[in-house]
Amino acid sequence: MSIVLTGATTGIGRATARLLAGSGDHLILHGLEPTISDFSPDDRITYFPADFGDLNEVERLAARIRAATDKIDVLINNAARPGPPVRTVNAAGLEVTFQTNYLAPVLLTTRLLDLTRRVVNVASATHLSATLGDAGRPYSAAGAYAYSKLALVAYSCWLARRRTEVVSMHPGIIATPLLHAMFAIGGDPPEHAAANIRYVASRQRDNGTYYDERKPARPNPEALDRGAQDRLIELTERDLDLELW
Ligand SMILES: NC(=O)c1ccc[n+]([C@@H]2O[C@H](COP(=O)([O-])OP(=O)(O)OC[C@H]3O[C@@H](n4cnc5c(N)ncnc54)[C@H](OP(=O)(O)O)[C@@H]3O)[C@@H](O)[C@H]2O)c1
Predict the structure, then answer these.
(1) Where are the transmembrane segments (predicted)?
(2) In a domain, 210, yes or no
(3) pLDDT in tens, 104-145
């Protein structure tokens, strides 16, 4: 099997990479760091860095993955950032949390879709607190993060209308730099989320499901609203200057 996993350098992604390594599967890992360490020479690891804050880097990452494999059994979109303390917009006018956590994985998925059997989008239960109209609301770090994750869940439901085996999930409340950047709470170890991700990645023939850890759960109703999905996709296609289907 070939598995693509983004955000594999720290936290949940790192624990997931370590769990999957050694299975004999070809792991194509991504992170922000220039290199990745701590794997055995026997593990089949390919590593590509890319900053999701730059969509040109996401395009380059997709091209490098396509050159490395002609089949992806599971694409796990895990990389994400917390919202910064103050609203931050990049040179293209895009809010940086939305770009890194939503636009970048959507672009990567679109570029790899024809090779991919199953897509697992790592979202967050915080998406339940957002609405797709939140973009114009007063800024907060957690609000920007939750909005980006609602967009990712709604995109997953939209894509599931067009093809099979696209799911999204909440991996658990996990003690990582991302959690602690936004919330003063404790969490389970990253290995707990890694086991949940491996479980969801290994399911077959389910489609459009939102998992709360390992249990199918109801996502934010807006994610299931076809009109809301279509409006989101229209905005996404404009931001990415790309047809998603
Ligand atoms: N922790 C939780 O309680 C929790 C709860 C719900 C959902 N989640 C989701 O679980 C996933 C993993 O989160 P985590 O808690 O493990 O966070 P984390 O420890 O901060 O790891 C995030 C990963 O994403 C990468 N990343 C961050 N910014 C990036 C950028 N601009 N370009 C490319 N890669 C970037 C990081 O790279 P570096 O190592 O180089 O920074 C790292 O590999 C995320 O999708 C998160 O939203 C987490």
Answers:
(1) none
(2) yes
(3) 999 999 999 999 999 999 999 999 999 998 666 799 999 999
Total count of domains within the chain: 1
Q: What is the CATH number for 77? A: 3.40.50.720
| Amino acid 136: pLDDT | 67
Residue 71 domain-assigned (yes or no): yes
Residue 245 belongs to a domain: no
Residues of the chain with pLDDT under 70: 134-136
Give me ligand 1 centre to Cα 227, in Å: 30
Nearest CA to ligand 1 atom 28: 81
Domain annotation covers residue 74: yes
Ligand 1: distance of its center to the CA of 244 in Å? 24
d(CA 84, ligand 1 centre) in Å: 13
* Ligand 1 atom, smallest distance to 174 CA: 3
Q: How far is the CA of 11 from the centre of ligand 1 (A)?
A: 7
Q: Which residue range forms the structural domain that includes residue 80?
A: 2-240
Q: What is the pLDDT of residue 41?
A: 86
